[in-house]
Amino acid sequence: MKTEDRLRRLAAPVRWVLLDVDGVVTDGGLAYDPEGREYKRFSARDGLGLRLLARGGIRAAFLTGRATPSGVLARALELEAPEIHADAKAKLPAYEAFKARHGLSDPEVLYMGDDYVDLPVLRRAGFPVTVPGAPAAVRRACALVTRAPGGHGAVREAAERLLDLKGLLDKALERYYD
Ligand SMILES: [Mg+2]
């Protein structure tokens, strides 16, 4: 089967996009102020990508192993998206709990993660996506590797690709046409 057909088949049932944060929504860099408060840098382009998803009826959530004050990610990207706090070393239980809470099955989830800790979820989710800087084993486990690096439009690229594969991109972009 051609790659594009395979991707279209994987994209068809997806209703949720679940995102690892460090290395996917950010470039993996961490900055701290003198009081030890953590700073993250986000791409505004990713925020728009997630809002486009919402227009296509696809919801997004963050699955992060690192403690972030509640609501920070959503506010930073100007969108409504829940944050699911996973154990930093084991994301699978949080993923399973998330699916149960929303009545989802694996094929309905696109998961985007960039490191070994994401592998169990990437192997489970219907549409696994990663970034070019991910280790080879992670890239091999994924159906799609974005061209853009984490924190520099990777989420935007995955969002638009998903909408396109589902035939929803034109609808999501309608408001920009007039
Ligand atoms: Mg990560």
Number of helical segments with 4 or more residues: 8
Work out the strand percent: 15-25%
Strand order of the largest sheet: 5-4-1-6-7-8
CATH superfamily: HAD superfamily/HAD-like
Family: Belongs to the KdsC family.
EC number: 3.1.3.45
Keywords: Hydrolase, Magnesium, Metal-binding
InterPro entries: CMP-NeuNAc_synthase, HAD-like_sf, HAD_sf, KdsC_fam
Characteristic key phrases:
8 helices, Rossmann fold, alpha/beta, six-stranded parallel beta sheet, binds magnesium ion, 178 residues
TL;DR of this structure?
It is built from 8 helices and 8 strands; from the N terminus they run αβββαβαβαβαβαβαα. The chain has 178 residues and is α/β, with parallel strands linked by helices.
Task: Please characterize this protein's 3D structure.
This protein has helices at 3-11, 44-55, 72-76, 92-102, 119-124, 136-140, 154-165, 169-173, and strands at 16-19, 31-32, 38-39, 59-64, 83-85, 109-112, 127-130, 144-145. The protein is globular and about 50 Å long. It is of the alpha/beta class and 178 residues long. The protein has eight helices and eight strands. It has a single domain (3-169), classed as Rossmann fold (3-Layer(aba) Sandwich). The mean pLDDT is 89. It has a six-stranded parallel beta sheet with strand order 5-4-1-6-7-8, sandwiched between helices. The relative contact order is 0.21. Helix 2 (44-55) runs parallel beside helix 7. Helix content is 37%, strand content 15%. Magnesium ion binds at residues 20, 22-24, 113-115.
